[in-house]
Predict the 3D structure of the following.
Amino acid sequence: MRFSNAFIPTLKESSQETDSISHALMLRAGLIRMLTSGVYIYLPLGWRVLKKIQDVIRSELDKVGAQELLLPALQPLELWKLTGRDKDLGQTLICFTDRKNRKLCLGPTHEEVITDLVKNNISSYRQMPLILYQIQTKFRDELRPRGGLMRSCEFIMKDAYSFDIDEASLDKNYQLMCDCYNKIFSLLGLNSVRLEADPGVIGGSESHEFMVFSENGEDKLHYCPSCKKTFSFKEGQSSCLKCKKDLILKNAIELAHTFKLGMKYSKVQSATFLNEKGKRQPVIMGCYGIGVSRLLPAIIDQHHDEKGIIWPKEVSPFDVGIAVVEFSKPKALELADKLSSRIESLGKSVLLDDRDIRAGVKFNDLDLIGIPLRIIIGKHWLENGDLEIIFRKDKSKTIKIKEQEVEEKIKTLLS
RNA sequence: CGGGGCGUGGCUCAGUUUGGCUAGAGCGCUUGGUUUGGGACCAAGAGGACACAGGUUCAAGUCCUGUCGCCCCGACCA
């Protein structure tokens, strides 16, 4: 992709109103724009990152045997009345009546819908265990949206649901999913901690949250500086039970929330199956959510410097940036085109900055956008054919290579 | 929903306290020229009627009333 053709509206300044770093960087780097409070547009660059994040999630979930489907965002309010959650969610649930006088709502989560699906399509213990998931837009009329994508009214969520014949089997799936989440977050460059949580409106017997420490997080955690153990803020203790050290209060972002639902939904919605003895019983359920769009600010929060974003290579919108500094020389652009198609044939994406502007602007934009590797075709190339590879994370590691070494080098650096 | 702040070209903001010439700056944009390794410079342009509605006044971006929108803190948060 040539920068001159790309829609990447970067900004030099950010408004004084946006006080979270990640949100300001998302606006400045041309990742998102606000439509109205709590509702955001994903620009091409932001959407590329979001798709990369989804790729990681899909790939890991598929590995543990979870199957992707897509449930409707539009749901009959009837289902919610059945479980009584229309009242639990209250005004958060966005409801309306269609022209046929049908009462509908926009899905804030999908326990009712998936349970309804299972009720009609699972009837035997032979059909379980089963894990289904989707990546979908959720709608919640938040009292106060904040922090850009951190808490918005329309957001992307990955929600998975497990179906088992008994508690022991649920425990297995639950563990499987938690391990999978740890893997996903570590691939995304997020140092997550897991701790027990309040099941809240979703319900169930047991529940855990996956959190990452962040100054701009909405949640608070107690942290032991000695044994590194984390405690939920609600537990209310002031010193570590083990080390007796004073706990430190830290802000954190909730990345994911898992629940052992048990029979909460299957009982009310009559999602039952016949066990091996021919006895009818409710399906045992689990539910596992990841705030996908929230991962964007969470990752940026953990990976940035004063110049801008530093994407982990798994989620960078482009794998390689090429800055043509000697743009007045036709040969430089020719070489850049050649290099980018050679790199693309390795299955890597390239953002080629061919713009007729000064070097400083390109460097600053590429720093802001945060692509991990940058090739410069500039004065060293003019002098003796050297291409420079600059690492976004650490410029002191800059290396010089010749044109014919590019594929080999990129392959090693991106593996 | 309670408290606080804000709304002036595409972006970031000044101007409002103490009403007064024709509404400003920087960035961005267009054209020409000089530049060209860390957000260049010169020149010439385009672009706003000051969130909206009412009111006070000889005169309102500025004062008053109402409405709408946005941000932050709190409450809430699957």
